[in-house]
Amino acid sequence: MSSSTPAQSLSRRVTASKVPEVTVWFWLIKILCTTVGESFADWINMGLGVGLSATALIFTAVLALALVTQLRLSRYVPLVYWPTVVVVSVAGTLYTDILTDDLAVPLDVSTAAFATVLALVFGTWFIRERTLSIHSIITLPRELFYWLAVLVTFALGTAAGDWTLTLTGWGAGVSVLLPVVLIGAVLIGWRLGISSVLSFWLAYILTRPLGANLGDWLATPRADHGLGLGYGVTSTVFLVAIAAAVGYLTHTGIDVLDPRDVSRPSRPARTRPVWVAVGYYAVIGLVAGSVLGWAAVHPHHQSATADDESADSSATPPTLVPGPVGNAFPAADIAGFRTITRDALAKVGSGDQVGARARIADLETTWDSDQDRLQPADPTAWAVLDRQIDSVLKSIRAANPDLDVERHALTTLLASLSR
Hints:
This protein has helices at 5-15, 24-47, 52-72, 78-102, 107-129, 140-168, 172-191, 196-219, 230-252, 259-263, 274-297, 306-310, 331-349, 353-369, 371-374, 379-396, 403-417. It has 419 residues and is mainly α.
């Protein structure tokens, strides 16, 4: 009896694979989860007026519940695993937003910090378990490392993606291209024999900005170079797609790892030497950095119209309507817009142009996401604020910003946001 117990225990542990096989379905649902997660968080945070901190607390509690449920299972269950991914996506995004919006941590700093934390997680995981492969998630410690790494990748992807948009000023559609190209480069590297584990985690990080940017592109109004579906419709479509995909996987079981493949040692894969991987990704990083550097010097104005583009960017933006128009909208919304504008004005005054770009991007995102709700309340007041926000964005994102123009645009907007 005692001699059979270890074998039975091993069989149970091997059978209890806690993650799906990495297939096309895996990446498809991962991107869909990323998009729905961020849209849902924005809806609760800004659409319902709950606020960033309260939303983060809510999703932290939901995350704890989802992880406890996931960890208590003895095997991979799509109906539990994928909702957990959605919640982790939301939580990771919210934690980055808190650092940026509430604690005023620059996006480059948070990106570097999360990258360091992720390296520490991977380092500790490897030292303890001697593998980072998700095909080996068959013990509780490995599963804990796995979910911690997933959480940090979402936070890192959020920070890096937002930092990229802040530097470049790219619109919703253009912003999708960079992660697509980088994921393609990772795929090519994997096909050429670069470590499958490294390739997996790089692609996992990059799917975060890809999914978020794709959702923004679909939801952003056509006037701002999006497809104009709105966040509600976009979230619903993606949620239905996730439900259909998870239902299909539950029915077929095609993404369940074969216990025999997990239990027996795999034949060593043909991989390139480490220096090849380092050189390959160094070249990719250099090219991507060059593109971002060029875009930072020649920013693309998402909300610029044909008339705006032909105008002199150094011209002082006019005050369209004297006096406040903030009373036309809910006090919570106006207070949020006012806080962001004041923060941007303070950063401009201190010479922190990068910080001002990062902060004003929050105003652009919030304003665009609230358009469907705010514009019908008072179209005239909304048009006034929209034009003034465009002037602020244009002045701060100019290739050669003029301090007086920036201050004038921001103070004009603040005057309109007063109640």
